[in-house]
Amino acid sequence: MSQPVLKVTNIKKAYGAIQAVGGVSFEVMPGEIFGVIGPNGSGKTTLFNSMLGQITPDEGKIELNGRDVTQAGPLELNRLGVGRTFQTLQVFGKMSVRDNLLVAAQEHKGTMLSRMFAPSDSGLGAKADALIDQFRIRHVADKKAGELSYGQQKLVDIAMAFMSEPDLVLLDEPCAGVNPSLVGGISTLLKELNQNPKFGKQSSFVVIEHNMDFVMDLCHRIMVMVEGQVLAIGTPAEIRANKQVLDAYLGS
């Protein structure tokens, strides 16, 4: 058995008397697409922010490739191989699409001194161009990101997360606000990135998303959270057939 890319053990986080996450444990294996679903207030966001180093859990342990990163901050996690997208767009609107991708990866390219004497694109141009082609946004590569449609900006945002060749990508509602006609395209693109990595390195994904059809189509396994607890973990077929899940969340 290979080592999990991500191992979360008994994570707990409370805000006063409110137990937002109450002892959540799960593993994500190399190359796996792992979905996290649950109703509003189930603790998904608190769990996600714990994994991203934005908040420190009260108890528990988070490991990345066997390394304890429970206390690590967002920048350290990023340099250790964690990419992420946000529910709200984080693109640089006044910069071109290509420059957005370059900026997303420059911190991973050597030291500040070495970057001063590197080419203007920090040697990342070929990588950016490859992702631009894979994301099918070549026709807008030189446009300012802020001039694109919301769906196109969402694609740029996701592409930026892959510029650093991450081991793990955390996707926070990648379909939020996206035209329904583009949702299937995002699912197909993420499958391609997972199955045929552009740079020979397969990433694992953790996806939080409210669009159930999207999650069921994309993910290998799904974890259902209710009131800060894990209700079930299983394949999409197992989750669909789980009566507790149907009663608590999906509806019968």
Summarize the model shown.
The protein is of the alpha/beta class and 252 residues long. The chain folds into two domains: 1-81 and 166-252, P-loop containing nucleotide triphosphate hydrolases (Rossmann fold), CATH 3.40.50; 92-164, no CATH class. It has helices spanning 44-51, 74-79, 97-106, 112-116, 125-134, 150-162, 180-195, 212-218, 236-241, 243-250, and strands at 6-15, 18-28, 33-37, 59-64, 67-68, 82-85, 168-172, 204-208, 221-226, 229-234.
> What is the architecture of the largest domain at the second tier of CATH?
3-Layer(aba) Sandwich
**SS class:** alpha/beta
Portion in beta strands: 15-25%
Helix content: 25-40%
The SSE string, one letter per element, is EEEHEEHEHHHHEHEHEEHH
Radius of gyration: 18 Å
Average residue-wise pLDDT = 87
Text of the CATH class of the largest domain? Alpha Beta
Question: What distance lies between the first and last C-alpha atoms, to the nearest angstrom?
Answer: 37 Å
